[in-house]
User: Fold these one by one.
Assistant:
Number 1:
Amino acid sequence: MTQEEIDFFDRIAPTWDADEIRSTPERVTTILSRIGIRRGMRILDLGTGTGVLIPFLSQLTGPEGSVTGIDLSDGMLDRARAKYGHLANVRFLKIDFEEELIPDKYDLILMYSVYPHLHAPSDTFEWLFKMNMNADGYLVVAFPADEEFINNIHHDRKAEHEHLPSAGRLAAIFRSWGYESEAIAETKDEYIVTVRRLVQ
Ligand SMILES: C[S@@+](CC[C@H](N)C(=O)[O-])C[C@H]1O[C@@H](n2cnc3c(N)ncnc32)[C@H](O)[C@@H]1O
């Protein structure tokens, strides 16, 4: 992340929860119900922001599991910690997940409303799968909206990877990088793509 990006997220952090109207509890619950979360999972929430997913993930994995929320914006992390720092199975870490090593391995790595912010998605996936993914683990790229909605928010962005393709097209791109990948939702309210290691 550049300092400019960190400053941007610090600036919008105070109003993020009020402005992020698409992540209603109902929509978040529906999206998470589609991605196979089981009790006891170790879950990594990359770009956790103010922790929009955290209470849901904490409950779904239960006391035998854990949730690690990662972000680089102090503005976002301070809010996440204030709201959910008391949950026993939750921790927050300040890390640039594209540049720094994340501790431990996980069963599920989530990127929720985060993918267009990546600078080097294919390198980052390779690194995450190598360093942080358990053998049967999988990654999920998700949004509470379709690509048209997301691209309208990011209309000033020029780099190719910053333009979000349809979920089906993104899954095909991940397959071309050597993963198993499937678009499991492609509607106005749900965009979900799963990514797994290719079984040889
Ligand atoms: C659009 S917000 C989404 C936040 C949250 N997932 C949500 O849906 O409310 C993207 C978040 O990803 C974080 N982020 C982006 N790139 C990052 C990186 N390389 N390392 C750590 N955090 C990053 C930003 O700081 C920001 O909080």
Note: The longest helix spans residues 3-19.
Number 2:
Amino acid sequence: MSETDYAHHYARPLAATSSITLRTPNTADGVAVWRAVQNTGTLEPNTAYFYLIFCSDFRHTCLIAEDGNEIAGVLIGYHPPSQPDTAFCWQIGVLAQWRGQGLGKRLLSAWLDLPANRHVRWLTATVADDNQASDKLFRGFAESMGMSCTVSPRFISDHFPAGHRPEPIYRIGPIRSGARTRA
Ligand SMILES: CC(C)(COP(=O)(O)OP(=O)(O)OC[C@H]1O[C@@H](n2cnc3c(N)ncnc32)[C@H](O)[C@@H]1OP(=O)(O)O)[C@@H](O)C(=O)NCCC(=O)NCCS
């Protein structure tokens, strides 16, 4: 299978999620994104203001999945200032009723295809070391795209307030231009 075939495989919506559309958010989506993040039950909640900033100043590197007017999934990302060739996925969440149907992978694929991410060669994310679903998502995405996924220490428990799991960093790539497609 060619790189492009792989990309199409994960860009293609499965039947149950075929009504879901993806788009970059704007300021008016900030509160809905804030609520959706809370409703994932796993993502660390930030303030509503945080999501207003990301849905405006960083909107070109964020993505929301919608079923009609209802948010089904979100991806909050940015380019680390010292690594312009890298897109960092800060938070990705799919609401419970849409999980396990390929939407997480579809979000990642479409996110890399955004105009703002077209130049990047690496996708990074930190994942709590007990988050199996997220581990599978990033490893599975890399494998399906024919890319490597390395995992190395980033934030250890001591960096966090007490009781937080370590968050190693996942680095996926190198991303070749042929590996991108529209979702
Ligand atoms: C992580 C998350 C975004 C995955 O979304 P999703 O739409 O269910 O993912 P997909 O259906 O695209 O599945 C991607 C891969 O992960 C695997 N996977 C998904 N959930 C899994 C789970 N709970 N346990 C084991 N594997 C899982 C799938 O089988 C698939 O594997 P494959 O590559 O072999 O096909 C979703 O579970 C979620 O929102 N969790 C809560 C928030 C969270 O933890 N976010 C990540 C923080 S960095």
Note: Residues 1-13 have pLDDT under 50 and may be disordered.
